[in-house]
Fold:
Amino acid sequence: MRYINILIFLLFSTLSIAAQEEKIYSFHSDIVVEKSGMIRVKEEIRIFSKGDIFKRGITRTLPLNRSDIHNNLIRMDYTVSGVLMNGNPVNFFTEKESGDLVIYVGDRNILLEPGFYNYEINYESAGQIGFFEDYDELSWNVNGVSDKMTDSVSSVVRLPEEARIISSHCYTGRIGSEDSDCFSETNDDGSLKTLVTNLSPNEMLTVSVGFTKGVVTQPAGFEPKVFTWFDKNGMALVSAIFVLLLLVYYRVTWKKYGVDPPKPVAIPQFSPPDGLSPAAVGMLHKGYFMDDLITASIVNLSVKGYLTIDEIIEKKGLFGMRKDRVFSLTRLKSDYSKLPEEEAVVLQDLFYSDNNIQLDGKYNKDVSEMMQNYRKSLNKQYRPVIDEGQNIKFHIVPWLTVVLYVIILFYFINNNLMHFVINRKALFITVPLLAILYVIYAIQIVRPGERKLHYKSNIEGLKMYLDIAEEKRMQFFNPPAITPEKFEELLPYAIALDMEEVWGEKFEKTFLSSSVKPEAYRPTWYTGTYVNAAMFGHALNSTLSNTMSHSATHPSSSGGGSWSSGSFGGGFSGMGGGGGSVGGW
Structure:
């Protein structure tokens, strides 16, 4: 029976441990204010450890700076006199990290067993008392914040015998909160007791005690650093000056160099504008190169009799359920002299070793090299036109201004950290404002060149002809009949402009609908899957572009290529000294 009782006791003990949450359960701080201006603090911290957060022990972080009610920066100092665990001395060491003093409690080589632990940390600190005209004051953040709820946080503030409490307040919540969900009372011995229960994660208890002036003296070397008006308001002033200067610069340079010239009136174009190739039209219209322009070039070469395209459906997988497309391209001519430069690159590089090439979606070195040269050719020919009027040189001043602004911000951060934190609203307003103004300026300072405007106007004219919606307007310009020859001539341009489906519908509506045989049109340069003329260009563009994409992308490449698109005047939680945080290590 005795052994059974022992087993039952061990079982329930194990279950009880497993049910406990690993966190700080209570935090009590006993603060003694001495006449010398020093304070002695004893913190009693009760935790439950499971080995996840508290592996070797706890950490106690204490700030090395605080601000007074005038936002002056005050340096603080701590001397740790001893640490206990469950009433016995325990190893600890301290380190300064990011402007804080961190106390590590425990042994690096010893892990805690699951269970409750009571820690006691004793230290002294100077620079914590505020000295005012009619009273002196201690504002103290009792607990170190934790990311879990703390069941109980309490404190006792003990003053010298000659001092009496003039006023006291307590605050709870996150930094800046004015909530007072706490209990406070003066004991018979003149000490002040404060208590809060169920303190939410990342919240703290702050107590402020105003007492008789002249009893406590200020320690030498801990006088507040008084900041000038510029220290307190300089960041906002500098931010306003930077924004104002940039606005003047933006206005003057835009007025002189960024106002767009008059745009030419777009007139319907019934043939390739200015003799441009389909890829050139697509690049000039979009304003940048895209790899899927290659499809427009291949179709254009086919229409002109340089290539044939054969689409082959291969059935693979169980019962041939999966269908893979393979495109077989065959070169019919080798004379490149009359071709646009980028189309000559296609014929020369794609058929470097043979007059036929199979595109099955697998990596092909010839396709990859052809695409690189194709891209270089188009950029060489038309990038200068697209970049005309970019006015990049006018971006230098805003860039240098931002660099100078960042340097000044670092000055405020390094020399006036407290005011930087308090007045950070200026930063939160200025940085987004500078970014928005720059984006607007970068768009507005661009002044398209006359060549670019001319090309874009004629390209818009071609789009008017290709678009079904413009059909009624076209009647006033006596457009040519949409024959199969006309359809094929402009199909590569429609592909480059992403209008192949619209152009196909227009062709089917105006030509095939009047034909005796509804499916009379079939291109001579293409064999393969064919639904109807309206969808032909769109289906060919999507499937061929996708196949070329995979063929040009090395298997080791990532991303798949780029083929498509003082508290008396009011206090708050967190004011004063103490605080910091409690964690585990």
The domain at 21-227+573-584 is CATH 2.60.40 (Immunoglobulin-like). Confidence is low (pLDDT under 50) at residues 557-565.
